[in-house]
Structures are given as structure tokens and as C-alpha cells.
Design a protein that fits this description.
The complex is a heterodimer. Chain A has helices at 3-14, 16-53, 71-75, 96-104, 137-143, 156-159, 169-175, 206-211, 217-223, 243-254, 261-264, 266-304, 306-315, 319-353, 374-401, 404-410, and strands spanning 58-61, 109-123, 126-135, 150-153, 164-168, 182-187, 192-201, 212-216, 232-237, 258-260, 356-360, 364-367. Chain A is of the alpha+beta class. Chain A folds into two domains: 3-52 and 268-410, no CATH class; 91-256, no CATH class. In chain A, the strands form two sheets. Chain A has a six-stranded mixed beta barrel with strand order 2-3-8-5-7-6, surrounded by four helices. A two-stranded antiparallel ribbon of chain A has the order 11-12. In chain A, helix 12 runs parallel beside helix 15 (374-401). The two termini of chain A are 32 Å apart. By secondary structure, chain B is an alpha/beta fold. Chain B has a domain at 5-111 and 183-239: 3-Layer(aba) Sandwich (Rossmann fold). In chain B, strands 6-7-8-3-9-10 form a six-stranded mixed β-sheet, sandwiched between helices. A four-stranded antiparallel β-sheet of chain B has the order 2-1-4-5, covered by helices on one side. The radius of gyration of chain B is 17 Å and the shape is globular. Chain B starts with 18 loop residues before the first strand and ends with a strand. The chains are: A alpha+beta, B alpha/beta. Chains A and B meet through helix 1, helix 13, helix 14 and helix 16 of A and helix 1, helix 2 and helix 3 of B.
Chain lengths: 412, 241
């Protein structure tokens, strides 16, 4: 064993009780930060997965991001046009066949076209407002995982029944309707049709379960009085992280507003970022406290070993050697705490993994969502070692600068 | 042949030998609101194979001079030459390296590392220098300790030894890297008369039999009288004894 390390370990062993307390401090810091990171990332991934599964990765709608200038402004060199009234433009995506061909050539994923609008469902005197989406069931199920969330019936039955409708179980509950019941569906176009419930789904997202419904595209076009019109393109990507880039490209190509799932949930994503900042601040504070423990123990050793420092210097140890001895002491405590903390973190995560309970708020959970990632262990251990290194370096620097003559003169 | 005896081949004593340690106008002033002059304008030459006593009343600067000669302290003015090489411009690292290879220290209080065994204490300078393989270091340490009458205490801790035995361990440690010079600060100051005599005899033998240079600070004038040369300090300056 190298001499410097051997001396450092001897010092740490000499203050065994305090060293163990310091190691425990680092261990707790590392252990809890790993468990917290597993929980935070797990819940974040679960949240995003639930969110993203229930919605398209990119949605193209029949509106422009910036309103089009009035025709007068396009044709005349006018500074401002007052009193112009826009045309009552027919809403909907123009030339959907050409759009489909254009996107099919490069889109890294799958897409489907839909017509969405507001509708009121009525059954037994109860009304429920929903967002009704007209879909091609086969195509829609390729871009959405909602088919996996079916509680009863199926989307395939829609294809066989133009007068069918699939609703969230929350909607059915509010209506007091069950699978097979026929409900009245009305829209602002004053069209009313009676549709039979052929499927019930439960995504776990309240907004989806309590306020959405699906019908055949043709049926929706009749209900909204917009024959042959679609107003949404839903895209499912192979890589969800490519959503922003793909949305931007579609918007450049088509001029229609294209919204990635991140943009659609921007406020939620910001909450997640804030949550992560809070988590890492708390973890950092825990490890900082552990760092103070290391600082205290190494400072105590420096104080106690002043005479040893003097004698080592008289034997020919330089300032760098002395600095290394005490820096290693801090790092040894930090490393021991990191290793034990990693084990503790793993055990806590396992413990959390075994906890099961049921909560019904926005998202249902039956067990805690956890992510096991080596990165958590590396970050926590790395931060602990950095903290230990700084905590060891400060007294180590002081030790290196001690004047051996003063210590030898003061010895008795 | 013993470990110490092996080093005796080129023993040279006193006059005619090359200068080993030289001081030129060596001055050390402690800064402060009232600066304190520890040693003032000392010129001296110590040759290889000399046994030199530094004497003087308390506060006369004996230990300060020893620490300056041993490169543990830096002069305010003047310079120290070790084996002809000026040291005042050396980096802290080079000064430490010079102490490691050329100088051995023995202090009034043994200053052994309490957590290490006697053998390990003697091995520390050798391990730092790294000139020998581990096995040879251990053999040399054990040989030195045996030569100094500590063959039965090789694996003991310092606190298991008497004061005289600890001081002999300190001497063995000072000799570990075969330095040409041993600097001793009151080496017998904390020992009883029997142990003092033992330690003095060891130092004497180092000079006479092994050609080492020994510079020892002492209050004991009888002991100083038994050395080859005496440097007497009064108020930080060399004076006639």
C-alpha cells in the first residue's frame, strides 16, 4: 500500500468513532438521494408515459400559429388596415390527401387524420359535454395506446357500426349509461344522432376519461356538418424526444399549427423541472451537511496530528505529500459513505418498490413508480466524493502550511 | 556485518574532509510588532565526520540554528549550503527532498508515529524515498533496530517502549536513508543518565565508526565536552565558550 494512503488510513482508523459517524452521514445522504432520484425520475417517466400514451406525440390542427394578414394588407402597401373583416373561411385542413402524401414520405412514425369538435352527450336526462373525435379506428389505434385501456367493448366495433361511440368510463358514469346503451349526441351544428356505446376506456387521466369520446370519422363529419373535412392530424413518433423537431418541420412545410406533446404540456413540464430542482437542492443540502461532517473530522485529525505533520515534514515530506494525506482521508470517508450509501439507496428503492396503494387523483397508481438507473448512483456518489474532496482539501491545505518548527518548539 | 557497519567503509573524520553543511551570514528574525532575532550573522562550516555540539543558555538560538541548518526553517538573511549547494533558492519540494536524502533528525521527544510499529516507523523515510524494494526496506529497518539493541522490540508500538528505547528508534529512523548528517535537538534532554549515555554512545559511534556527521544541540556541557567541536551561542550569535 502506498505510504501516503497507509498514513491516511491509519489516521482515519485512529478516529474510528468519528470517522464512522462521518461515513454514516455520507451514506445517508447518498442513500436517500439515490432513492429520491429513483422515485422522482420514476414518477416523472410514469407521468410522461401516461400523458404521452393518451395523446399524439404531435398534433397538427387546422389553424395557423399567427393569424393571416387581411387581404387588403397583402395587396396594398398599407401600414394598417382598419375595419377589414376576415372571410368566413371554411375550417379544416385543406387537401388532406396531399398533406398525407407529403408527410408519409419522411415522417419517422405513424399518423392518422381526425375531425374533432365539441359535442353534448345525453342519456336519461343527463348531459355531459365532451370532446368528440371522429376517427378511422384502425389508423387511430396505430397512433394511440388507448386500445390498451379498454374496460369494455373495443374500437374495432366502431368500424363495424357507424352508429357506435366509444366513451371514457367517467363519461359513462356521469351519464349513468353502460355498454350497449344508446345515447343522444348533439353538436353546435344542430345535428343530433343516437349512437350506441360500443366501448368504454379508462386511461387513468381524468380529463380523458371524463370528457372525451370517439366516433367514426364519417359519423363525426355528419354530426359537425362538415362532410369530407378533417381538422387534426395525429402523429405517433418512433422517438418521442423527436417531437419538437418533427412538429417544427411539419409547421414549416404545411403552415398549420403543429404542437408537440412537450409544447402541449409546457406548464406541466415546467413543474417537473421545478420539482427536479427542488429535489436536487434537497439532496445537495443533505450531502453538504455530510460534507461538513467530513470537514469536522479531517480538521480534528489535522489538529490532533499537528506533531505528526511536523515530524513527517522533518523526515522529508513536502507540503504536497501532507496535503494528499488529509485529502485522501476526506476522500476515503466519502468513498466509504458512497459505497455504503449506494447499497442503502438500492435497498430503500427496493423497499419503496414493494409498497402498493391506490390513489385516484389525476393519475392512478397502484405502486410507486421507480426507475433504477446507474446514473443516479454515479451522480450521488460523484457529488458525495466532490463534497468529501472539498471538505478534506480545506483542512489538508491548512495542514500542509503548518510550520514544523513552531510545532516542534511547542511539543512537550 | 551489521547494517550500520556496512556504511563505515568511507568514514572520514574532521579536518581535511569536504564541507557538508555551511552557513553564511545566517540570520533569522521572527516578524511581528516586536521582531525577535533568533540567530544573527552566523558563519560556520561543518565538515563530514565531525561531531559538533551547539551549546548556549536558554533562548540563545541553539535550536533555531539547528532548524536552519536542517532546512526546516528558512533564514531571513544569509544562506545554508548543503554539500556545497546553496539552498535558499530551492523550492519547498527540493528542500523536503534534501531533508529526506541528506539529513536525519532526532528530537528531544522521540516524535515517533504512535499508530505504527517500531519497524514501520523506521521504514517511513525509506518508503518515502522509495530507493529499495519493500523487503529490503524491512530488512534494513530491522537491522538498524537490532544494531541499536532493539531486536526484541521490532513489532511493538512506541508506547510499549521506554523513553531511551524510543529515542534509539528515533535514531534508527534518522539513519534509515543513510544520510551523511544527523541533526539532534537535545537528544538526551528527556532521558535518565543511563539512557542518555546509551544514546550519546550511539551518536559517538556513528561519527567514529561510520563517518557520519552529527550536530547536536545540548544543555549538557559535560556531553558537549566529549564531542569534537563546540559552537557556543549567546543572544543568537556565535561566542567563545
Amino acid at each position: 500500500m502506498p505510504l501516503i494512503l497507509s498514513i491516511a488510513l491509519t489516521h482515519v482508523r485512529g478516529r474510528l468513532r468519528q470517522s464512522i459517524v462521518s461515513v454514516l452521514g455520507v451514506m445517508l445522504g447518498v442513500g436517500f438521494s439515490i432513492a429520491m432520484a429513483a422515485l422522482m425520475q420514476g414518477s416523472q417517466e410514469d407521468f410522461i408515459a401516461t400523458l404521452v400514451d393518451a395523446m399524439p406525440h404531435v398534433e397538427v390542427s387546422d389553424e395557423a400559429r399567427d393569424p393571416a394578414p387581411p387581404p387588403a394588407a397583402r395587396f396594398f402597401d398599407a401600414v394598417n388596415v382598419i375595419g377589414a373583416r376576415p372571410d368566413d373561411d371554411t375550417r379544416g385542413l385543406r387537401n388532406p390527401a396531399r398533406l398525407r402524401a407529403m408527410l408519409d414520405s419522411w415522417l419517422p412514425g405513424r399518423m392518422t387524420m381526425t375531425l374533432a369538435g365539441q359535442a353534448v352527450l345525453r342519456y336519461g336526462g343527463r348531459d355531459v359535454a365532451v370532446s368528440l373525435t371522429g376517427i378511422d379506428p384502425a389508423g387511430y389505434l396505430r397512433v394511440s395506446n388507448i386500445g390498451d385501456d379498454m374496460r369494455a367493448g373495443s374500437f374495432e366495433e366502431l368500424a363495424a357500426n357507424l352508429n357506435g361511440i366509444v366513451v371514457g368510463d367517467g363519461v359513462a358514469e356521469k351519464l349513468g349509461a353502460r355498454l350497449g346503451d344508446t345515447i343522444a349526441v348533439s353538436t353546435s351544428a344542430e345535428a343530433v344522432r343516437r349512437l350506441k356505446i360500443v366501448g368504454l376506456y379508462h386511461t387513468g387521466v381524468t380529463q380523458a376519461d371524463d370528457a372525451t369520446a370517439y366516433a367514426m370519422l364519417k359519423t363525426a363529419q355528419v354530426l359537425f356538418a362538415r362532410p369530407d373535412v378533417v381538422n387534426r392530424i395525429s402523429v405517433k413518433l418512433d422517438d418521442i424526444n423527436a417531437a419538437r423537431a418533427v412538429a417544427a418541420r411539419i409547421e414549416r412545410m404545411t403552415g398549420y399549427r403543429s404542437t408537440s406533446w412537450q409544447e402541449a404540456n409546457e406548464s406541466l413540464m415546467e413543474v417537473l423541472v421545478v420539482r427536479n430542482v427542488i429535489m436536487y437542492t434537497v439532496v445537495g443540502a443533505i450531502l453538504l451537511v455530510a460534507g461538513f461532517g467530513i470537514f469536522t473530522i479531517v480538521s480534528t485529525i489535522v489538529h490532533e496530528k499537528a506533531r505528526d505533520i511536523a515530524i513527517l515534514k522533518s523526515l522529508g515530506f513536502g507540503q504536497g505529500d501532507i496535503r494528499r494525506i488529509f485529502l485522501i482521508e476526506g476522500l476515503v470517508i466519502g468513498a466509504a459513505g458512497s459505497v455504503l450509501g449506494s447499497v442503502l439507496g438500492y435497498l430503500i428503492t427496493l423497499g419503496l418498490d414493494s409498497v402498493t396503494f391506490e390513489v385516484r387523483t389525476n393519475v392512478e397508481m397502484t405502486s410507486l413508480p421507480l426507475t433504477y438507473s446507474p446514473l443516479h448512483y454515479l451522480i450521488a456518489s460523484g457529488f458525495a466524493l466532490l463534497s468529501a474532496g472539498i471538505a478534506g482539501y480545506l483542512p489538508a491545505r491548512r495542514a500542509a502550511k503548518l510550520n514544523p518548527v513552531e510545532i516542534i518548539r511547542g511539543a512537550s | 556485518m551489521s547494517a550500520i557497519a556496512e556504511e563505515a567503509a568511507d568514514a572520514v573524520a574532521g579536518a581535511g574532509a569536504p564541507p557538508l553543511i555551511e552557513a553564511r551570514r545566517l540570520t533569522r528574525i521572527l516578524p511581528g510588532t516586536v521582531p525577535v532575532t533568533l540567530v544573527r550573522e552566523i558563519d560556520l562550516t561543518i565538515r563530514a565526520g565531525e561531531f559538533v555540539a551547539i551549546t548556549g543558555p536558554s533562548g540563545s538560538g541553539k535550536s533555531s540554528l539547528l532548524y536552519l541548518l536542517g532546512l526546516l526553517d528558512s533564514p531571513t538573511e544569509g544562506e545554508v549550503l548543503i554539500e556545497g549547494e546553496p539552498t535558499h533558492l530551492l523550492s519547498e519540494r527540493r528542500r523536503a527532498a534534501t531533508r529526506l536524502s541528506t539529513l536525519g533528525f532526532v528530537f528531544q521527544f522521540h516524535f515517533l508515529l504512535p499508530e505504527f510499529s517500531v519497524t514501520d516507523n523506521v521504514m517511513i523515510p525509506m518508503r518515502k524515498l522509495g530507493r529499495l524494494p519493500a523487503r529490503e526496506m524491512r530488512e534494513r529497518a530491522r537491522g538498524l533496530l537490532a544494531d541499536l539493541g532493539l531486536g526484541d522490540h521490532l513489532d511493538k508500538r512506541p508506547d510499549q517502549l521506554s523513553g531511551g528505547q524510543r529515542q534509539r528508534v528515533a535514531v534508527a529512523r534518522a539513519l534509515a536513508n543513510e544520510p551523511p548528517a544527523i541533526l539532534a535537538d537535545e537528544p538526551t534532554g528527556s532521558l535518565d543518565s543511563r539512557s542518555s549515555d546509551q544514546v550519546f554512545d550511539i551518536l559517538r559511534a556513528l561519527v567514529d565508526d561510520h563517518g557520519k556527521t552529527v550536530i547536536a544541540v545540548t544543555h549538557d556541557l559535560d556531553m558537549a565536552a566529549r564531542m569534537d567541536r563546540r559552537l557556543h551561542l549567546v543572544d543568537g550569535m556565535l561566542a567563545d565558550p
